Amino acid sequence: MEEQDAPKPTSERHVPVLKDRCINLLAPGFEAARSRGETPVAIDATLGMGGHSEAMLQRFPDLHLVGIDRDEEALALAGERLRPFSARTDLVHAVYDEIEAVLADLGISEVHGILMDLGVSSLQLDERERGFAYSYDAPLDMRMDTSRGQTAADVVNTYSEEDLVRIIRKWGEEKFAGRIANRIVTARTTKPFATTGELVEQIRAVVPAAAAKSGGHPAKRTFQALRIEVNEELDVLERAVPAALAASAMGGRVVVMSYHSLEDKIVKSVFQSRSKSSAPLGFPVELEEHKPEFKTLTKGTEVPTPEEIAENPRAASARLRAVERIKARRTA
Ligand SMILES: C[S@@+](CC[C@H](N)C(=O)[O-])C[C@H]1O[C@@H](n2cnc3c(N)ncnc32)[C@H](O)[C@@H]1O
After folding, report:
1. Is residue 32 situated within a structural domain?
2. Predicted TM-score (pTM) of this structure
């Protein structure tokens, strides 16, 4: 999400995006588990403040939920919110491409529903000192997991000009990427960047006022690009979507909400390739081994209604896709 609203108390901080639609899409996977006499298990791979998880645990009283987040602050807050359900939850500090290891540690072999609500949370944007927001002066950090990895300051102070152009253009879709990268490289020779304010000041100096008027805050796209780079969001997602599919039981469903076209491209490509027959063209019959493992549940992407966007501006760029496993998993 890219909206940067004024801070609110935690309890009011956010409305889960497409909550009812996500839950309705996941429900038949849990039903399939029950019909086999199994306890339904879900993974919320992006626990955040636990909004979607809380709704799932309320709606399905027999559900066991594994909540994953790479942000320890989010895990602590969600833990508080989900305390009434603690007997049915496992909350784990991990990156979501580690689903296989997380499940192995918990002794769970497969799951019946997986939800991924990608990107940054309202909490992360509101906590000024995390450095995600261009509207507040704070240390230039932007790590979702503050216990490891490079910060946004490391990126702007050490990357070559070419690499800065590449990430700002590609991940920020910023047409002034060349000017911004050049300004960063020049400015850092006098003094390395330490704060968001210093970066915003340099960006403002090179983005034409007219462009800023039509395209929103001049630093918006550069901040998005840096956040994606710092957290290696797209590389992780490329590994995570196949990992989620691999963990899904027969009839299990995977629901993903993206907020950036490059995220959606990755989700679409993996979902499509796993939902089509692998039979060579012109093959007269479809052998079992060529049958698709998944079927798509959404026609293209689903988007929030105007009413939902009015209630929750961060939903505006959400794109939802979902699949269901229709062929048994290959187990080692
Ligand atoms: C948009 S928020 C999720 C909000 C949540 N659905 C709710 O209802 O509160 C995304 C969350 O996913 C986490 N996250 C993003 N990328 C992650 C990754 N690769 N691995 C684990 N967690 C990640 C972020 O730290 C953030 O808390």
Report:
1. yes
2. 0.93
